[in-house]
UniProtKB/TrEMBL annotation:
Subcellular location: Cell outer membrane
Keyword Membrane: yes
Organism: Rhodospirillum centenum (strain ATCC 51521 / SW)
Regions annotated as coiled coil: 87-154
Keywords (A to Z) from UniProt: Cell outer membrane, Coiled coil, Membrane, Signal
Protein name: Outer membrane protein OmpA (Probable proton motor MotY)
Cleaved signal peptide residues: 1-29
Name of the coding gene: ompA
Chief localization: membrane
Length: 281
């Protein structure tokens, strides 16, 4: 006769030691924990991205967290491994954030330095340009003053008087020759440099011929000079002309040399009007 097993014996609980071993086996993490492996790879990537140099303290904390999690792999439960891996990941993210902030600061400092360099270079360029312009102006003024010497410039109470004795009108003519126009170039430049001063052009002749005719001829010659100046950009409103004929000689009309001196154009560049006194009078 076959004996059936007692169901009560099959359902008896396991010994306590065996139960503990079973629970421990179920709670342990596997030897390879993928989340930790991912954080380890991210740590290696961060090292190649220079995070360690840009955020050394935070990066070292992240390294220690990864090492601690690695040391517990295979012996810690899954919950503990998850917690340790999470801490390592957070600290690595903190290190990356600090490194990014450090890069931003470096970039900002670099931009500030570039801006200062550009401004400094611009100031130096401006100073160099100003020196160049000043030197060019000095040379131009020096050249202009040298050219104006041919006009026998003299200062009077009315202003600067320039005698154009080298303007050689033909007999009974008020037409400027090409040479006369060239000799008037320094006068044009001088008047351009004095835009606020009025100009008086006076024509003179020698005593040969009728006085009335000489006065009319001297007026036409003064106007010829005015027209040339206007053609060169000098404002017509600045210029007044007057023909004085033979009335104001500077030499004797008895000699040819004297008459040549008397046939002239005088240009007065008038002084600017003085401001009225505050007290009147």
């Amino acid at each position: 006769m076959t004996t059936r097993p007692d169901p009560r014996r099959l359902c008896r609980p396991l010994p306590a030691a065996a139960a503990l071993l079973l629970l421990a086996a179920c709670a342990s993490a596997p030897e390879n924990y993928p989340p930790l492996a991912r954080v380890q790879q991210e740590l290696a990537d961060a090292r190649t991205e220079n995070v360690a140099a840009q955020a050394p303290v935070a990066f070292q904390e992240a390294e220690r967290s990864v090492q601690r999690a690695q040391s517990r792999l295979g012996s810690a439960g899954e919950a503990e491994m998850e917690h340790l891996t999470y801490l390592a990941e957070v600290r690595l993210q903190t290190a990356r954030a600090e490194a990014q902030a450090a890069r931003f600061r470096e970039e900002r400092q670099s931009l500030v330095a570039q801006r200062e360099s550009i401004l400094r270079s611009a100031r130096e360029d401006q100073l160099a340009l100003a020196r160049t312009v000043a030197e060019e102006d000095r040379q131009r003024i020096q050249q202009l003053e040298s050219q104006l010497q041919q006009y026998q410039a003299r200062e009077t109470e009315a202003g600067t008087v320039l005698t154009l004795s080298n303007i050689n009108f033909d007999l009974d003519s008020a037409t400027l020759s090409p040479g006369d126009r060239q000799r008037l170039r320094p006068l044009v430049e001088y008047l351009r440099s004095q835009p606020d001063r009025a100009v008086l052009i006076e024509g003179h002749t020698d005593s040969q011929g009728p006085a009335a005719y000489n006065e009319e001829l001297s007026q036409r010659r003064a106007e010829a000079v005015r027209d040339f100046l206007v053609d060169q950009g000098i404002q017509a409103a600045r210029i007044t002309t007057r023909g004085l004929g033979e009335g104001v000689p500077v030499a004797s009309n008895e000699t040819q040399a004297g008459r040549l001196q008397n046939r002239r154009i005088e240009v007065t560049v008038e002084n600017p009007p003085r401001a009225a006194s505050a007290t009147g009078g």
